[in-house]
Each structure stands twice: as structure tokens, then as C-alpha cells.
Design brief:
Layout (H helix, E strand, L loop, with lengths): L1 H8 L11 E5 L4 H12 L3 E5 L3 H10 L8 E2 L7 H15 L4 E4 L5 E2 L7 H29 L2 E6 L12 H21 L4 E8 L6 H4 L1 E2 L10 H4 L4 H13 L4 E4 L3 H11 L1 H10 L4
Parallel strand pairs: 1-2, 1-4, 2-3, 4-6, 5-8, 6-7, 7-9
The structure holds NADP nicotinamide-adenine-dinucleotide phosphate (NAP).
């Protein structure tokens, strides 16, 4: 009864998460934190991952179902070897995972000519190799059980390019390509591979983005402030899981339309992208 009411509150998502295990990276902030909350409200047991253990503990204590229903597994997506070790140990304790959400990530604000090469390595390590590493730990048990969903949060920047994001877009295009290939390989086992491409969503993504020298951008942007709420974004992610979708673009206005414009009018899109101010 309570599950049904909460389900209606999440605007039409009827996905059955009662006692399903949902492992979410980037659960200390923004989209990941909100998704953890919505999944717990729908009855899920949530595995919360990110670097900041104390923040994850605070998120866990607020989740529906109480502290003992959920797990905190701190990990750094930048260190794939250590991540695979600690995630493997945690998985042995947890048992099985129904939905893996590769959400943790970091953006970029810097022109190519000015950006340190280290920034590119970091973006690729966190956004792409971190996603590959955790998926390598979790996927074999999904294949063995012939069920599960791998959800990777790419970006509209994983479908189209724009100024200031050469490294970020590269890493997010890589996630889209990896997920397309993975889907082709594991659909025969009944495993969903959902790629999520958000446009502008109201989170700390711009504040935490890497600038040209690798320091935090440290300012928010009007595009992000006027974007979709994390709540609406997560409702759409849950609907896409429920509807067994392969890919979904989530954004309002131009940020949601950009991949379609690029697909059908690539010349126009590229001209507009070049004219747009780098700000
Ligand atoms: N907001 C948008 O407009 C937007 C648009 C398109 C795509 N996205 C994608 O959505 C995802 C979530 O971002 P958000 O918008 O929610 O931004 P956010 O508020 O900045 O959250 C980012 C999350 O990623 C975690 N993270 C960052 N570096 C990490 C690392 N090395 N190891 C482990 N975790 C790390 C952070 O946790 P810790 O700092 O505690 O580690 C935090 O929980 C990202 O993949 C982002 O690229 C966002």
C-alpha cells in the first residue's frame, strides 16, 4: 500500500523495487543522492558509493527503511584497481545486485589549448574507466542470474560536442559507445543496458567541474540553475528502467533537443556550436 502511494508520488514510476538491491555511484550529491532517495522510497536496498564516506553516512541515515537496510561502500572512481578490490569484497557481503547505476562523475570547463593533459587523464579515469571497472565487478553475477540492469549516466555531451568540454565529452562519448557494445553482448542474458544522457540538471556539477589547471571551477551557471530538477531527472531515469529502454535523453529546451538537432541537421548544429560564446 505504502509502496503504491510512494510510487504515485514519483510521478508514474511503477518500477517494482521492493527489496531490490540498487548500487549507485556518486550517491553523495546531486542526481545520485536523489536517485538513492527515490529508490529507497520505492522499497529498494541501496548501496551508496562515492569518495566522501561521512556524507554517504548522512545520506544513508535519511533513507526510507532505516540505516540497516542500506550499505555505504566508499570508493574512488579514479583508482580502478583499488575500486575493483573493494567493490569485489563489498559484493561478497551484499550478495547480488539488481540495478547498477554508474552515475559518479566530474565535468570540465576549459578550452583545449589551455587545458593540462592531466585533466584529460582524470576525466577519462573517473567518467569512463571507473564505469568500466565497477561494471566488470558487478556484471558477471547479473549474467549468472540472467537478470539485472546496468544504467550508466553519460550526458547530452556524450552525444554532441560544445566548447569547454573536450575531455568531458570525450569521456561521455566513450560511455555511450561502451554501453552500446555491452548491450549487444549481454541482451541475450536478459540484462538491460540503459544509457542516460541528461542535459542541464540542477546539481553541483558546474561547481565541481575541472578548470584548465585541474582546480575546481567553483562557480555555478545559469544554464544549470535553470535546468531540470534532480527530482524530475531521477523520475525519468526510473521510468526508463521500468520501460526497459536502451537510451534516454533527459533535459528541457535546447539541452534536451541538441542530440536530435545534431542528428538531422549536423551542419547547422556545428555552426551554432562554433558561434556560441565560451562561457
Ligand atoms: N547536472 C548536470 O547538468 C549533468 C548533465 C549531464 C550529465 N551529468 C552527469 O550526472 C552524473 C552525476 O553528476 P551530478 O550532476 O549529480 O553532479 P555532482 O552533484 O557534482 O555529483 C557528482 C557525484 O560524483 C561523485 N564523484 C566525483 N568524483 C568521484 C570520484 N573520483 N570517485 C567517486 N565518486 C566521485 C561525487 O562524490 P564525492 O565527491 O563524494 O566523491 C558526487 O557524488 C555525472 O556523471 C555527470 O557527468 C550531469
Amino acid at each position: 500500500m505504502m509502496g503504491a502511494i510512494l510510487s504515485r508520488l514519483t510521478k508514474g514510476s511503477n518500477v517494482n523495487l521492493e527489496n531490490k538491491v540498487v548500487w549507485i555511484t556518486g550517491a553523495s550529491s546531486g542526481i545520485g543522492k536523489e536517485l538513492a532517495k527515490q529508490c529507497a522510497d520505492l522499497g529498494a536496498r541501496v548501496v551508496l558509493s562515492a569518495r566522501r564516506a561521512e556524507v554517504l553516512e548522512a545520506v544513508r541515515s535519511e533513507l526510507t527503511g532505516g540505516k540497516n537496510k542500506h550499505w555505504v561502500v566508499p570508493l574512488d572512481l579514479e583508482d580502478a584497481d583499488k575500486l575493483m578490490e573493494s567493490a569485489t569484497a563489498a559484493l561478497a557481503d551484499i550478495g547480488s545486485v539488481d540495478i547498477l547505476v554508474n552515475n559518479g562523475g566530474i565535468s570540465q570547463r576549459g578550452m583545449f589549448l589551455e587545458t593540462d593533459f592531466d585533466v584529460y587523464k582524470r576525466l577519462m579515469n573517473v567518467n569512463y574507466l571507473g564505469t568500466v571497472a565497477l561494471t566488470k565487478v558487478i556484471l558477471p553475477s547479473m549474467v549468472a542470474r540472467r537478470q539485472g540492469s546496468v544504467v550508466s549516466i553519460s550526458s547530452v555531451a556524450g552525444k554532441v560536442g560544445s566548447k569547454l568540454r573536450t575531455g568531458y565529452s570525450g569521456s561521455k562519448f566513450a560511455v555511450v559507445g561502451m554501453m552500446d557494445c555491452l548491450r549487444a553482448e549481454v541482451s541475450e542474458y536478459g540484462i538491460q543496458c540503459l544509457t542516460v544522457c541528461p542535459g542541464f540538471i540542477q546539481t553541483d556539477i558546474a561547481v565541481n567541474a575541472l578548470s584548465a589547471d585541474g582546480s575546481a571551477n567553483a562557480v555555478n551557471e545559469s544554464n544549470i540553475e535553470q535546468g531540470l530538477t534532480a527530482q524530475e531527472c531521477c523520475q525519468q531515469i526510473l521510468r526508463a528502467i521500468e520501460q526497459n529502454k536502451d537510451e534516454v535523453v533527459i533535459g528541457k529546451g535546447l539541452s534536451g533537443l541538441a542530440p536530435t538537432i545534431k542528428r538531422f541537421f549536423p551542419g547547422l548544429f556545428n555552426t551554432l556550436a562554433a558561434k556560441r560564446a565560451a562561457s
